């Protein structure tokens, strides 16, 4: 499976990093300018030799280069708003527009809260256009004991949406 992963400027960079580590298959990373800053501030990471978010000539800006899914993790409210309103001024937002128009899977993992009425409408618009909006809400039914388990629990939910996960569900043992 070919997955394009976008990390935008929302807090919660650990979700993007852990998703990249847990996601099998071919992965391509796009990081916004503020995403780079959040990676540096929250995780002490710096990036080299990366397709820049300003490179609108990159392969993912065209529908002729197919991928199986675009996952924006974490996705800022600004990015959500741009995608919902058809603004494609960065590689991340252009790739999202391509995913929607080409009917490829688009998953936006929004970390910020609370949501204004405008944000709720933007999320609805993305859903109506075929995208999946997943607020970062880790599953607690697995009784995570560490922050890493909390983050992994949510990443497993995203992998499940992509058809790549087999993490246990709520009271799954009762279904056997």
UniProtKB/TrEMBL annotation:
Residues 1-152 form the Flavoprotein domain. GO terms for molecular function: prenyltransferase activity. Keywords: Flavoprotein, FMN, Prenyltransferase, Transferase. Pfam families: Flavoprotein. NCBIfam families: ubiX_pad. This is Flavin prenyltransferase UbiX. It comes from Geodia barretti (Barrett's horny sponge).
């Amino acid at each position: 499976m070919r997955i394009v992963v976008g990390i935008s400027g929302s807090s919660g960079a650990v979700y993007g990093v852990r998703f990249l580590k847990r996601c099998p298959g071919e992965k391509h990373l796009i990081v916004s300018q503020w995403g780079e800053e959040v990676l540096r501030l929250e995780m002490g990471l710096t990036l080299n030799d990366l397709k820049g978010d300003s490179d609108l000539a990159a392969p993912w800006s065209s529908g002729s280069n197919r991928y199986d899914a675009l996952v924006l993790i974490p996705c800022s409210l600004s990015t959500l708003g741009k995608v919902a309103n058809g603004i494609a001024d960065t590689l991340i937002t252009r790739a999202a527009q391509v995913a929607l128009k080409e009917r490829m899977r688009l998953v936006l993992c929004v970390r910020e809260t609370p949501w204004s009425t405008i944000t709720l409408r933007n999320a609805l618009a993305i859903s109506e256009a075929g995208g999946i909006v997943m607020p970062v809400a880790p599953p607690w039914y697995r009784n995570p004991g560490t922050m890493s388990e909390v983050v992994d629990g949510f990443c497993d939910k995203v992998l499940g949406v992509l058809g790549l996960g087999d993490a246990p569900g709520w009271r799954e043992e009762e279904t056997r």
